[in-house]
Amino acid sequence: MKRLIFLTCTLMILLAACGTKVEEERDPKESVKDENQKQVEEIVKEKEDEESIYFKELKLKSIDGQQVFLVDDLFELIDGTYQYDDLHRSVEMEIDNHIFKLVYDIAVVEHNGLYLPTNEISMVLEEEKLYLPVSFLDVALGLDVEVNERLVSFQWMEEALPVGSVREESLLDRTWTIDEMVDYLSFLQKPIEDAEVSTIPNHLPGAKRAYRNGYHEGIDWYGYATGKQISTDTPIYAMAEGVVVRADHDYEEYPSPLIRNKDLSLTAQLGETPEYIFDRLRGKQVWVQYEKGVMNRFAHLDAIPEDLKVGDKVTSETIIGYVGNSGTSGAVNQDGTQLHLHQDLLIYGELFWKPFSLDEVKEIIVRIFEE
């Protein structure tokens, strides 16, 4: 009996020892398993944190059949600033060292002084609130977006935007000589074949425009001043290789002299011409973006070739429109007067003539268009 008890006790001790040994052998494996599980959980949590940081959502609203979002909402989600100018109805946004500019009722986006070949983006004003279409996110900012009826989502990284335009210094940040400007613009050909550029002071950039309380921003090509008979059949050429960034196929003329005069009365009250009114006074337009930041606004057109579209590549031999008087008093009075081409030349969003006197501007444009 004593022997049986002894054997039983011995067996229990051995089993306990074996159990302890097995437990000791399992502990490292269990520890590794627990550590792996912990790492997986941490990775999942980090991923969730990243998504909450980088994936943004904006509420959408439908205005005139277009899905738009509040600009205020956008800048609550991303780093950047914006300023809205109520006088000119224009907005300037700085996002990741990129500058974007828009003007009310103009479907053109200026990005770091270059004009984008798209007509999908136009700012919307409703009840004193500023909206932008979803296309601003994917076309202008180059973001991948997902849209449903109420939300647009996009990935936002605190790094450089996918869009590639380099921000250039302002035209006014450097000193220009006449020779430098002539050389810079010398690639441009005449917009009207066999015409001579006018040197009449009132046709030159910087001339006063009392009727709208402002200044003339470009070059006028009238028949009597250019040695070329001009009519609504006179073609206008693109002047150089470039890309069309605006083509007003859907332009609507002022419905009456009264409405146009109302805009002009407002300019008298303000003492300057708001940009959105200025644009309407330019009439039917085509804009072409060239190399080196040069952009050309062709204004007061009578017609635009039906097949000319935003995004089209053009050359000095491409007809972009025909001489007209749209936007002028001659158009709203329907008397056939004011027939001419007006063109504005800009360099990275700045009028080329701003660093110069009127006499210097005259010399520059004469030399640019010399045979």
UniProtKB/TrEMBL annotation:
Q: Can you give the residue ranges of the M23ase beta-sheet core domain?
A: 216-341
Name the record gives this protein: Peptidase M23
MF (Gene Ontology)? metalloendopeptidase activity
Phylogenetic lineage: Bacteria, Bacillati, Bacillota, Bacilli, Bacillales
Family matches, as Pfam families: Peptidase_M23
Organism, per UniProt? Anaerobacillus arseniciselenatis
